[in-house]
Design a protein that fits this description.
- There is one protein chain.
- With 499 residues, this protein is mainly alpha-helical.
- 51% of the residues lie in helices and 3% in strands.
- A two-stranded antiparallel ribbon has the order 1-2.
- Strand 5 and strand 6 form a beta hairpin.
- The radius of gyration is 22 Å and the shape is globular.
- Bound molecules: zinc ion.
Length: 499
């Protein structure tokens, strides 16, 4: 038994009787609730709530001390960056008067492309004419491009007449059950966004890219714009079923990428409003995001990851994001889910506190536990929010992911980890890419109506179904040009002019 386990036991046995009673009854209620929830809903909860739950069971045992930055260290900049004529939501941020303005103390001054503070540089320009050069430069192949092309064909074939997609694609008129493994949910906003992203990743918009898919993308985007709900908080893409902010995050990414790539005024306005909703929904207590806007349960890293990517994509299209939102998000990573000075990340805070004996004044910090998928999300978010390539925690995190390698079945983990490894580059990326690219190409379905799609057993694959697995697989194979490497953009531009 580890030291940390013993200290848990000690803490538990010293609790007053009534607290133990409350905890036991609470646990019983949770078990009962779990028993009565429909199976499909529980599975969906797993997808949204618990990335990495089934993985790394060894590390679950290992409670590691979370990051070395305390909440008191972090002051918040109260920025007003509203563009003329735009209304930003009211934030419940109390600027710390006593603390100086300070971001992550480990982070050196950010200089790389895409870091916050450098908001208007588009990382999407690799999707245009320079695509072929980037493909060759970063390890794509003829085989990977062929797989992407077939995958896009399958997605287009399963679009609904109203421009949307559904995780349950069996009702789409060209399929009608010819393909297996639909997901159980419609979730029109997130399914549509997830299907649009691989087209956008390939450089296809209503105005540019492969002619045969421009209409497909146009109809999908129009569906999203019509289906979004406007309120004073912004434009929300919350679907009817659970996982609200998860759906919104995905749809916001699609709208923001499309806005950035097209510079279309309608899309840009929608992107700003979708970003505003994310800013509104940020949880004041910990700087994270969860299912519900401003969820009282506190943030989780899975929902957090989609929102950060949406905010960054929004910035690249010119949307304004108050810098306090990023400071609060940084706090979530550093103090709630970050472990080993941010080299790894957990799913959420356990809510328990411990005294950090490494800090000079034994500050109190929350416990968490790290997982593979959430570590990849945390590291990618830190890269987007300003960590440089030589950041010691990033180097350790990449070593950790490298040692794990891509998982042949867990596309969710692979999707994030692949981006981290791609941005990091070098030999580690070469090895990672070769293994993953060739595995994915080999596993694409080539028979019948399923031709071009992917499906295999893996964590949550049955929940999102074939649409989910296909979309993630395509985006992984688009990584060479979908996002320009955060740290090498200028070098690439010098070698392969993209304009
Ligand atoms: Zn089909």
């Amino acid at each position: 038994m580890s030291l940390s386990k013993r200290s848990w036991l000690k803490r538990w046995t010293s609790l007053p009787g009534y607290l133990v009673s409350v905890a036991v009854h609470g646990l019983l209620m949770l078990i009962l609730l779990h028993l009565y929830l429909p199976e499909s809903f529980r599975a969906f909860q797993e997808l949204i709530f618990q990335p990495g739950l089934s993985e790394d069971s060894d590390v679950f045992e290992e409670f590691v001390r979370s990051s070395a930055v305390s909440v008191e260290n972090l002051g918040f900049a109260v920025a007003t960056q509203a563009a003329p004529g735009q209304t930003l939501p009211v934030f419940e941020v109390t600027p710390s008067q006593s603390a100086p303005l300070q971001a992550n103390p480990w982070a050196s001054v950010s200089t790389h492309i895409g870091a916050f503070g450098d908001p208007h540089v588009s990382a999407f320009s690799g999707r245009g004419d320079g695509k072929g050069a980037l493909l060759a430069l970063y390890g794509g192949s003829e085989g990977s491009e062929q797989a992407v092309a077939l995958g896009l064909e399958w997605l287009a074939e399963h679009q609904n007449p109203n421009g949307s997609w559904s995780y349950d694609f069996t009702k789409s008129p060209k399929c009608r059950g010819k393909c297996n493994n639909p997901g159980p949910f419609a979730s029109a906003n997130s399914a549509t966004a997830l299907a649009l992203l691989p087209f956008l990743g390939a450089g296809i918009t209503p105005k540019s890219g492969d002619q045969q898919y421009r209409q497909v993308v146009d109809r999908g985007l129009k569906f999203l714009l019509q289906n979004g709900q406007r309120s004073r908080e912004g434009l929300s893409f919350i679907d009817d079923d659970e996982g609200k902010m998860y759906h919104h995050g995905l749809a916001a990414i699609a709208i923001c990428e499309a806005a950035s790539m097209t510079q279309d005024a309608t899309l840009k306005e929608a992107a700003q409003q979708a970003v505003n909703f994310i800013c509104y929904a940020q949880i004041p207590a910990d700087g994270g995001w969860r299912y519900e806007p401003r969820d009282r349960m506190g943030g989780n890293t899975s929902v957090f990851g989609w929102q950060i990517m949406a905010l960054k994509s929004g910035q690249m299209g010119g949307a304004q994001v108050p810098s306090e939102v990023f400071f609060k998000a940084q706090r979530f990573l550093d103090t709630v889910v970050g472990i080993d000075q941010g080299a790894m990340y957990g799913y959420k805070s356990s809510g328990d506190l411990y005294e950090d004996t490494r800090s000079p004044d034994n500050r109190t910090r929350p416990w968490t536990e790290y997982r593979r998928a959430t570590s990849a999300i945390g590291l990618l978010s830190q890269m987007h929010m300003g960590w440089n390539l030589d950041h010691p925690s990033l180097i350790r995190g990449v070593e950790y992911l490298s040692a794990k390698g891509p998982d042949p079945n867990n596309l969710y983990y692979n999707y994030y980890a692949t981006q981290v490894m791609h941005h990091y580059g070098g030999e580690a990326w070469r090895r990672w890419n070769q293994e993953q690219r060739d595995t994915l190409i080999a596993r694409q379905s080539l028979e019948g109506h399923e031709r071009g799609s992917w499906y295999f057993d893996g964590p949550w694959n049955d929940v999102g179904g074939r649409l989910y697995t296909t979309s993630l697989a395509i985006m992984i194979l688009e990584v060479y040009y979908r996002h320009l490497p955060l740290y090498q953009k200028q070098a690439v531009e010098a070698e392969f002019p993209l304009d």
